[in-house]
Design brief:
mainly alpha
């Protein structure tokens, strides 16, 4: 062993061993460092140990190491440890444990990991209200790219629950601060929200009992817009509603519009 090797920091040696496939050797060094409560590298070593042990297939020991790192409260490595725990629980479908671990990430409070935790908690949410709150928190956490991603998820969720107006508001807000590369996707989704709003307005016009010409126009616009949202069967039902309407003048107006494509 050369003098330079003797001077190599243990963490670097452990990392090199792990990269070379010597997981046992790396684990031995990291275990020693993680076991020293006064050691300056304890948090980092414990996270590294968790990764090495998981690669070695020792999941429970890996989690114990991650909990050691989490207990240090280190702003970087405690947060990494909580993420490690949360992701492992998610892979196993253990939602409650995963939620608790993601909450621990928020408890550490390291800015770089807070948006990811909110996104994960939204993914694991059991209600619309909970998911909406977490996605809004992710939007407000200060990471532009994650905020844009959260906005698109929230907009999808709101449209699924027949709230296209709220979805459009979310997307407009996100566009004010989104990174340039995320703007096109947000704009397309905003257009989709406007299509949903348009469909709702057309439907309300028909249901509101407008005059035959206005109702026929609303029926045509609704029937021609719905396929843009992949709702061809709904469009056929709208046409049928108009063509078979008991008001003969309305049915005749709809027939004129329908026959333009014939």
């Amino acid at each position: 062993m050369t003098f330079s090797e003797l001077e190599t920091p243990p963490l670097d040696t452990a990392r090199r061993l792990a990269e070379d496939g010597d997981l046992d050797g790396a684990a031995a060094i990291l275990s020693r460092l993680a076991a020293d409560p006064e050691g300056p590298d304890r948090a980092q070593a414990a996270v590294g140990l968790a990764v090495v042990l998981e690669e070695r297939g020792d999941v429970e020991a890996a989690r114990a190491a991650a909990r050691t790192a989490l207990a240090t409260g280190h702003p970087e490595y405690a947060a990494q440890a909580a993420c490690h725990l949360a992701q492992g629980f998610e892979r196993e479908g253990r939602a409650e444990q995963a939620r608790a671990a993601w909450q621990a990430v928020l408890g550490v409070g390291t800015a770089a990991y807070v948006p990811l935790a909110h996104l994960a908690l939204a993914r694991l949410a059991t209600s619309l209200e909970e998911a909406e709150a977490e996605l809004r928190a992710a939007m407000a956490a200060g990471d532009g790219q994650i905020g844009a991603h959260a906005a698109r998820q929230l907009a999808d969720l709101l449209m699924e629950h027949d709230e296209p107006g709220m979805a459009a508001d979310v997307l407009m807000e996100a566009l004010e601060s989104a990174p340039e590369e995320d703007v096109p996707g947000l704009r397309v989704q905003l257009g989709i929200a406007h299509l949903e709003l348009a469909c709702a307005e057309f439907a309300d016009t028909v249901e509101g009992g407008a005059d035959p010409q206005t109702s026929a126009l609303a029926i045509e616009l609704l029937a021609r817009t719905l396929p843009l949202r992949g709702r061809e069967e709904d469009a056929e039902r709208v046409w049928a509603y108009g063509l078979e309407h008991e008001d003969e003048s309305l049915a005749a107006e709809v027939r004129l519009r329908y026959d333009r494509d014939a």
